[in-house]
Design a protein that fits this description.
Blueprint lengths: L2 H16 L22 E16 L2 E20 L5 E16 L5 E4 L11 H6 L3 E7 L5 E6 L3 H5 L11 H5 L13 E13 L2 E17 L2 E10 L6 H4 L7 E8 L4 E14 L6 E14 L9
Antiparallel strand pairs: 1-2, 1-12, 2-3, 3-4, 3-5, 5-6, 7-8, 8-9, 9-10, 10-11, 11-12
């Protein structure tokens, strides 16, 4: 190599060596927020498979429930701060329940058959706007306004989670600050148990989240729930047996919505109706984002 060229190369290396090296940026964490566009419709499929077994001495009763619901959120407005006004629609549903070895009772909104009385309220609700919700970007539901008459909403099993603590289960309440993998946050909600007759007691439920990882723009979050209120009586504990759960959430940070959620429980309570009694509850609940439009069943 000619001397001049050698000098140029040496000078180049010297310049690189003298240049300051930028330190790696510290992990700033991630800000988890919902994002919606006015006019879009966000669709989910919700499935649940649950079994409940009650035993008292030699008597044993089992109930199985299986459901699949296609749920839509129509975005009717988005405020400057990102708060979205959503209208909830049940596009389709298939539900069944059975007792012991008897054939299950089934309702399928895609069929024209007249459903059993237990599903009549669901049939009337298919394809209609059920409620209007205001959702803050952080996942808190500011308000819920039913769009169905109260008597029609009352006829829907569980009122589709639109009352009580239900709206807080539709979305994840995120912290307002940036968080890193391994950090936790929590919220609480209340339910009630019946002590006797019309006498009830409020029970606080703790819901705790943990950011497990962030990969390729998807946050994986673990979630657990458990009663905070101390209940020593098995007859009260059995009423919150479905409140001790564990699950995972996969959240697309760029799109600003959950890709999937899964919640499970397998709990047993002994002595809820005497020393020779037991009650077991097992359930798997999943919610999956649908990327293709779903057909709305006709009522």
């Amino acid at each position: 190599m000619p001397l001049a060229a050698t000098q140029i190369v040496c000078l180049a290396f010297a310049a690189l060596a003298a240049a300051p090296v930028e330190a790696p940026k510290p992990d700033q964490g991630v800000l988890l927020q919902y994002k919606f566009r006015e006019g879009e419709t966000v669709r989910y499929r919700i499935e649940q498979d649950a079994t409940f077994v009650a035993s008292k001495g030699p008597t044993r009763e089992k109930q199985d429930t299986l459901s699949r619901t296609d749920q839509q959120f129509k975005v009717v407005a988005v405020d400057a701060d990102g708060t979205a006004t959503l209208r909830m629609i049940i596009a389709a549903a298939r539900m069944e329940y059975g007792f012991d070895d008897a054939p299950p009772t089934v309702y399928d909104s895609s069929q024209k058959d007249i459903p059993a009385a237990a599903f009549a309220g669901v049939r009337k609700a298919i394809g209609r706007e059920l409620a209007e919700l205001k959702l803050h970007p952080g996942g808190t539901v500011d308000s819920v306004r039913p769009l169905l008459p109260s008597e029609e909403l009352d006829a829907i099993p569980g009122k589709l989670g639109l009352e009580g603590e239900g709206p807080s289960n539709l979305f994840v309440a995120f912290p307002e600050r940036r968080i890193k993998a391994g950090e936790t946050w929590s919220d609480t909600f209340s339910t009630r148990v019946v002590i006797s007759g019309k006498l009830t007691q409020e029970v606080k439920i703790l819901r705790q989240y943990r950011l497990e990882s962030v990969q390729n723009g998807v946050a994986t979050i673990a979630v657990k729930t458990a009663p905070l209120t101390v209940l020593g009586d098995p007859s009260l504990l059995v009423q919150v047996i479905q409140r001790t759960t564990s699950g995972t959430i996969r959240f697309d940070m760029q799109a600003g919505r959950a890709l999937a959620r899964k919640v499970e429980f397998d709990n047993m309570e002994i002595g809820w109706a005497g020393d020779d009694s037991s009650y077991r509850a097992v359930s798997t609940w999943t919610e999956t984002l649908l990327t293709e439009p779903t057909t709305v069943s006709s009522r």
